[in-house]
Amino acid sequence: MQTAADLYRAAADARRYSHSPYSHFSVGAAIIAENAEGGRRVFTGCNVENASYGGAICAERTAAVKAVSEGYTRFTAVAVSGGYAGEDEQDDTFPCGICLQFLSEFASDDMTVTLRSGTYAFGELFPNAFRL
Ligand code: ZN
């Protein structure tokens, strides 16, 4: 069983692959996801910036797209770690609004969101997700 601390460590480790030459703010994310066959895996991601700023993608969505593209569409936990390149992670690097909406597609309100400073319920961070 992956603890919240383990998942946070995986997110912090994923920061090392961040491509953030513009903001110099590296972010890592880790998601526990399940597939329709009952499989359960951890997917990690980092932020990937681009010279065309709008082409950038956050760490959370990188991890989410990796999971969904392999059939893991039910997220039960996510961890996020961020900080300036070469520095320790900050206490609170919350998912941005776009990522919260993106994650809501694959998460319930009780999905846990672990940051360095603690763990939140997804519904606490994003209580009114747009869902069809
Ligand atoms: Zn984001």
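^ zinc ion complex. The chain has one domain: 4-125. Strands lie at 25-35, 40-46, 72-84, 107-115, 118-121.
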